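Structure representation.

___
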Amino acid sequence: VKIPVAGKDKSPLKETVSEKQPHQGKPPETPPASIEDGNNKVSANEQDTKPSENLEDKKQSDTTKRSDSSQEKRNMQEQTKQDTKKSADPNKPLNIILLYGDDWRHDSIGSAGTSFVHTPFLDSLAEEGIKFTHSCVTTSVCWISRATLYTGQYVSRHKSEYPQDAHWYSGWNQTLPYLLRENGYHVGHVGKWHFEWNELVYNTFHWSEPYYGDHWYNINGKKVHSTTRNERDAIKFLRERPTDKPFFLGVCFFAPHAVDHEEEQFFPQPQSMKLYENETVEVPVGGDDFGWKRLPYFFEDSNEARRRWKLRYDSDDKRQRMTKNYFRLISEIDESSSVIYRELKNQGILDNTLILFTTDNGMYMSEHGLAGKWYPHQESIRVPMIIRDPRIPPEKVGTINEDFTLNIDLASTILGAANIPQPDVMQGRDIADLYQPGDVGWRDEFFYEHPVHLHTTVIPASTALVRKKYKFMTWPDYGLEQLFDLEADPYELDDMINNTKLADLVKEMRIRHDELKEKAGQIGLM
């Protein structure tokens, strides 16, 4: 895969569709053709939809039952606590399901702040587990986050800055999939991978269906949505797996990521189109010219995040349509995730299974006059995360954790649930330390980094030292520094780097930033 030159390609960083790898030992086949029907708006009778209730009807039903929901949640939490008492065996490797969304920001679930996003399953999963409100990524872009997920390393260490640069494969025997397989797990993957699916990768997974890049696929003459396809493949894995060994399944949804090569960008299923039709999407704070003009001087129309903003948000009509379709895709993933959950329950293995939901990066939805990700602002680096773990002590079920958890921690956490020692090359920590018995010291700051992509005028490099109150941000290509007070200025619009009263703080954070920057490229916990 060649990275296209900016200006010669409609979408300089558009997703490329990987080859579909069929099940267990069969040779590769040509990936199904994606739908290219202009705006992809197809009627229900033209596509293959799953036999589930209309999501809008489900939403209305949930609304009428709101008076009962609090009691239901209490009952569910109590049942989870009782199940935890009965089933949590710290010496028994857990089954593990990773539900991994794409370009999904931290506040885009119903219980996290965006009031009209409908995610009843994820909300209930949080009631049965723990919701982590300060989960962040160390580099906000799809493929680097995936390399970090499987290696437990910063990009400074795994070196995979582009999809075609899978340098992390050189240490394959210390990656998450390999270690799980070598320690007796039945290992499966569904959906987006984003790097070459070669023989090394294929032979590690017992069961695999990698694909991404479109919201709709033609399969055997039927139009199938990527989320429905993810769901069906996950169910097939669960029903075909051997029952005498633990399993790991990564369900890596392509949605709600945009289809970059299409003008319309987001293509939900017809049964979702009534969702949010009566809602009004407001311009976010800093989502206008004021926010755009507060960015550093080198942010111009050639910037990729600005280009995408023009595609999605430069008129109210676009803002309403694009945002609602984005949220519809999220609601569809919520529904498909509930189907996977019910399959676990029907198989009687829910109480020996860790379910981890998170996403690869956040997304600007017009904040700062941008769309996409890449930069160190909160909208870009914060992601949702929920863990349902049978080892969670009963008193912590349904609670919220506000510690900094990072995507370098995901591999460590999954290995911990599998009782597999973490290799020294991994830089993260087991998130279970935050809810299992015992006091542990935990990070109160972290280092963020993103390399330059294509050109400094397209996606300039950025780094940051992030704390709860202050964020020290740098733009290395331009020698520029910024400082934001996240408590007083949560939208990062008031740069305080030249505030003389904060000179000592800037000096201290600059030194600490440089220390963590150096450490990010070395062996050792972060």
